[in-house]
């Protein structure tokens, strides 16, 4: 299913897109973009969604104001592209690590995209090297890193290739250029844009329906309300270490099976940090997340 709006669903089939309704009595809110569905075709042309396949992955957000509830906003994504800016807003590893942990928790592959590389660093070779070193940490632990600029077009082809044939969501803080990147990789698509803060002069894209945008290269990008809240995700303390993928091989050699890698003796992860096998900054962010942000239920809110 590629689009949900006012109780009507656009379902892509081998015979083109068919407009469908939910079955009478079914909860239409339970079907989200990316869901694989079985439909029956009615004589009038519209279809009816009869049933839904189990989801391979779910992309969810915390429901505002409630600590426990998650709302699934897209299903069966192949990956999330975590977009940060080289500057304006400044590149922050703490932000990236939180989004990465949330992606790992959802079982989603993550690609790191650093946009706005036309700003700041190019003017200054040292700053450019520094940013390259900071992003290289992520490439070395296995996340593809793409540097882009919508202004100069640098890297836009690399991003287009990363999206090709896959279903992705672009996530990241506001203002980093997610909407601009979607337009750059697929010129001609229209994001539903509306000025919502004229006083600051900043335009913002607002979405009125949930959909997957079909790109020219066989890929899809999710354009759903609430995508910005992705990352407001609940992870238990026991699950957090697993969300730092480079810890996994070293956690196997911890003395205690339930080691949290903070103060325990014989910790394989801490040893790996000392040996330079796990980036120290990542480990420090892990400890910071373990120490802070605990909700009543002893779950960490990764936001
Ligand atoms: P979103 O909130 O992440 O969707 O960000 P937008 O796509 O709305 O972009 C926020 C602002 O950054 C807009 O004013 C864009 O024109 C600007 N912007 C986007 N990409 C780039 C870039 O590569 N370089 C520069 N200098 N500005 C950019
Ligand atoms: Zn340990």
Cα radius of gyration in angstroms:
21 Å
Low-confidence stretches: 193-208
Assembly annotation: single chain
Strand content: 25-35%
CATH topology of the largest domain: Rossmann fold
Our count of domains comes out at 3
Name given to the CATH homologous superfamily of the largest domain? P-loop containing nucleotide triphosphate hydrolases
The 3D shape can be described as: globular
Second-tier CATH architecture of the largest domain: 3-Layer(aba) Sandwich
Which descriptors would you attach to this protein?
303 residues; OB fold (Dihydrolipoamide Acetyltransferase, E2P); Rossmann fold
What does this structure look like?
This protein is α/β, with parallel strands linked by helices and 303 residues long. The protein folds into three domains: 3-52, OB fold (Dihydrolipoamide Acetyltransferase, E2P); 58-223, P-loop containing nucleotide triphosphate hydrolases (Rossmann fold, 3-Layer(aba) Sandwich), CATH 3.40.50; 232-302, Probable gtpase engc, domain 3 (Ribonucleotide Reductase Protein R1, domain 1, Orthogonal Bundle). The protein is built from eight helices and 17 strands. The strands form four sheets. The protein has an eleven-stranded mixed beta sheet, with helices on both faces. A two-stranded antiparallel sheet has the order 6-7. A two-stranded antiparallel sheet has the order 12-13. It is globular, with a radius of gyration of 21 Å. Bound molecules: guanosine-5'-diphosphate and zinc ion.
């Amino acid at each position: 299913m590629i689009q949900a709006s006012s109780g009507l669903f656009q379902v892509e089939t081998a015979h083109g897109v068919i407009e469908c309704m939910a079955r009478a009595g079914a909860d239409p809110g339970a079907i989200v973009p990316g869901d694989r569905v079985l439909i029956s075709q009615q004589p009038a042309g519209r279809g009816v969604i009869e049933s839904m396949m189990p989801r391979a992955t779910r992309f969810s957000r915390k429901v505002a104001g409630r600590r426990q509830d998650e709302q699934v906003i897209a299903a069966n994504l192949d990956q999330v592209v975590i977009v940060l800016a080289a500057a304006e807003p400044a590149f922050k590893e703490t932000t990236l690590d939180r989004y990465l942990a949330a992606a790992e928790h959802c079982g989603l592959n993550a690609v790191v995209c650093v946009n706005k590389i036309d700003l700041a660093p190019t003017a200054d070779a040292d700053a450019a090297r520094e940013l390259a070193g900071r992003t290289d940490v992520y490439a070395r632990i296995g996340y593809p890193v793409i540097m882009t600029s919508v202004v100069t077009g640098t890297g836009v082809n690399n991003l287009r290739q990363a999206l090709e044939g896959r279903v992705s969501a672009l996530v990241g803080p506001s203002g980093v250029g997610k909407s601009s990147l979607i337009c750059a990789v697929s010129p001609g698509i229209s994001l539903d844009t509306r000025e919502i803060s004229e006083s600051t002069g900043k335009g913002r894209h607002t979405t009125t329906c949930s959909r997957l945008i079909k790109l020219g290269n066989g890929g899809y990008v999710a354009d759903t309300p609430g995508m910005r809240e992705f990352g407001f995700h609940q992870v238990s303390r026991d699950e957090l270490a697993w969300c730092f993928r480079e810890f996994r091989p070293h956690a196997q050699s911890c003395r205690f099976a339930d080691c949290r890698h903070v103060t325990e003796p014989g910790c394989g992860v801490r040893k790996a940090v000392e040996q330079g096998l796990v980036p120290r900054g990542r480990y420090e962010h892990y400890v910071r997340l373990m120490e802070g942000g605990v909700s009543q239920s002893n779950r960490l809110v990764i936001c």
